[in-house]
Structure formats: C-alpha cells, structure tokens
Amino acid sequence: MSAVTAAPPDSFRVGFIGAGNMAESIARGVAKSGVVPAASIRTSHRRAERRDAFRSFGVEILEDSAKVVDDSDIIILSVKPQMVKNVLLELKPTFSKEKVLVSVAAGIKLKDLQEWSGHQRLIRVMPNTPSAVGEAASVMCMGEMATKKDEDRVASLFGAIGKVWTADEKYFDAVTGLSGSGPAYIYLAIEAMADGGVAAGLPRDLALGLASQTVLGAAAMVRNTGKHPGQLKDAVTSPAGTTIAGIHELEKGGFRGTLMSAVVAATKRCQELSKT
User: Fold this and answer.
1) Taking the model in full, what pTM does it have?
2) Which stretches make up the Pyrroline-5-carboxylate reductase catalytic N-terminal domain (predicted)?
C-alpha cells in the first residue's frame, strides 16, 4: 500500500451518480479546493432538497443520470451497494470508452462493476465520512484499463478531501472494516471519554470538548511525528502515575482486543455483503 500525491489539476468534468451525503462531501471538497470548479461538476436527483444542496455551491443539475454520464469525463458512482447493479445495467448503453467510472460503493468488486457496466476504465475508491470536513482516509485501486492520467485525476479529487492511498483490491474489505467503519469506533470512544469526564465532575460541554480535541491531537501526533503509537503512549505514562492507572483499567476491559475484534467483524461483514 502506498500514499498518493495528487498531480496538478487539469481540465475535466466530474459527474455524480447518486447525490447523497458522501457525494455531497466529495463534491464540496473538490469545488472548495479548486481541483475542479463547481461549474464542472454535475449530478441529478429526484428529490428537490438534494438538488438544492448541490446547486447551493454551484453544481450543475441535469435531468437524469444518463445525461450526467454523457456530460462528464469522470463519473463517480455513489449509490447504495444494493443499487449498483441495477443502476449500471440501466446506464450501460451510455458509457463510452473515454469515460472513467469510479465506484465508492462498499463491497462491490471491479469485476462486477465491469460486468454490469460493460466498461473497462474503472477505479474503485473507499473513502470515509470525515470527507465532510476534509479529513477523509481514502484508498483506491485501479482497473486494468485505467490509465496513469485516470489515476492522477481521481487522486486529485479524493486528495481534495483528505489523504489517499493505493492498494490491491484484495485489501478492500479490510479497508472498509478499518477506515470505512472506523469513525464510528472513534465516536464511541470520544463519547465514552466525555462520559468519564462527567462522571469525574466535569461539565458536559467541557468534557466533550476535551475528549474530542484530545483524540484529534493524539492522531496528529501519530501522523506528524512518525513515531509508533506505543512509543508515544510510553512518553505519557509516568511510573505510578495517573495515565498508567487508566491504561490498566483499559487493559482489564480488553480495550485493544475489542477494537481489533471490531475491525475484523466489520471486515467479515463486508465480505458477506460482497457475496450477496
């Protein structure tokens, strides 16, 4: 697995098939970054509130998904996994060889995307919900017919909403279990830390602010120092101090093992979904 550095932007149009929250987060981040101007982004949706959400930051709203495909160079498929097959079968006649199809649907493999779309220039990406605040962890893998230019363009799009890695498709179920589902694990941890602060006597707002900033700061330490998390943990843990007392309780509760099991369980569920 390797991190991707986005290439300088060039001129191309991006269409979204599916205009839900993930698509909106990606589109907003891309437009804000300037990688692609909002006027070069298009989508369609049957619900007026979703059309209005995209229109509010300059995205062009087209009549239907077929027109989105026709008017885009890169098409980002952002529908629920159970809808992917029907959507692609319906759009199959509209794909021409110069188009690039990018799927962010969890559990849908490249071979299925190719079979249902009849298209070969494919890229699969697994982002996560922090895309909404420009801190996504996205992993991408390339279909056999995708070009280096395709890769650079798609990396620039997802680089606008966070950090991007490339990896073989065989890792994608585990990616989903870790970074795809992972924000929910961290939200639980933040909530629990804040509850602990309240139980220890802190006001709720202060406890939640301290918990969320502590998680943010700790993540930045891991990312920016390059040090192993265990090394950073040891630096906080003084002999017979407060931190080791807290860590002792976490270890008695199976904290690390439980988190590991959560990632494995989510990975297995993703594998199950990809077979249905």
Assistant:
1) 0.87
2) 13-107
